[in-house]
Amino acid sequence: MPGVTGMGAPASLGDGRRRGKVTVATIARLAGVSAPTVSRVLNGQAGVALSTRRRVEAVLHEHGYQRGDAATPAPLVELVFHALDSLWALEIIQGVEEVARDQKLGVVLTTMQGRLTPGAGWTEQVLSRRPMGVIAVLSDLTAHQQAQLATGSIPLVTLDPTGEPLHGTPSVGAANYSGALVATRHLLELGHRRIGMLCGNLKWPFCRARLDGFRAAMDQAGVPVDPDLVRVGPLYVESAARETTALLRLPEPPTALFATNDLQAHGVYEAARLAGLRIPDDISVVGFDDLPFTRWAGPPMTTVRQPLRRMGSTAAAMLVALASGQTPREHRVELTTDLVVRESTAPPRTIREI
């Protein structure tokens, strides 16, 4: 079961008896079930076999049926995270809440305990709460789950999706490719050539984009990427520290590392400390996110500022527009990133000694 926090009583639910020429009775006849069964599916209620529920949903989707205006949404935004274990999530939550307060909406926070795809009963729970809409962060909703929300007239916006949203599903992210490109160019301009990268899960679009930006900068500079210096692992401190330790033990270790996020960069700091190395004297480090702790790190961390709070507020504003019947001008919004140069990068020792 997902964890849910927040306040707000479920709104009264109608079943949208008629939608154009397609009625609940028509859907029931085509699906071979009773009208009350169709209503239970529309309302996310229990008591319907999974095979029957999916058959009804398929007919609803095929005929473009959506609940009518009788089903009044609750003044809630459903904000879904796979996990809440980083300041990264807090920044996004604050952005969503800024818009929610302005619109007099509550926020229901749902966590999936580390799972990227919500469990089988998640959609039914959302339909029963009947929120104004759903923002899914770093999540991979199945096509079936996205279709269920659409059938229930619940708008969906994805933020940094780990899978591919259905065509037409709005999404918000940062300029991951250009952010990584600029970060890598910064290291190249300092004179580094043995540059490594700590990557995240390459099935995730934003991780692939950051690796692509890194490779593009190296290619444009005519500097070959040593495959031994590119490591893939979880976006956490511990795994990054392990990978960095392995890199530092190579016969030709990197003189600089670019990390996919600030937590990985923090892992580089820890590995360097344990190895008796100084940043940036012995190795330069660049992160990605600009979380609050980076400015107080020792030394303060050079990183790519990702506008996390604005990403949250942008996603919430898109959701409000969708709920009011507006069509978004753009289905994919990418917000700009900025390189924040602090004290964790410097020319490599060989250049400084010349």
Automatic annotation (TrEMBL):
GO molecular function: DNA-binding transcription factor activity; transcription cis-regulatory region binding
Name of this protein: Transcriptional regulator
Keyword Cell membrane: no
Alphabetic keyword roster: DNA-binding, Transcription, Transcription regulation
Alphabetical list of Gene3D superfamilies matching this protein: 3.40.50.2300, lambda repressor-like DNA-binding domains
Every HTH lacI-type domain range: 22-76
Record-linked InterPro entries: HTH_LacI, LacI/GalR-like_sensor, Lambda_DNA-bd_dom_sf, Peripla_BP_I
Keyword Transferase on entry: no
Lineage: Bacteria, Bacillati, Actinomycetota, Actinomycetes, Micromonosporales
SUPFAM superfamilies xref list: lambda repressor-like DNA-binding domains, Periplasmic binding protein-like I
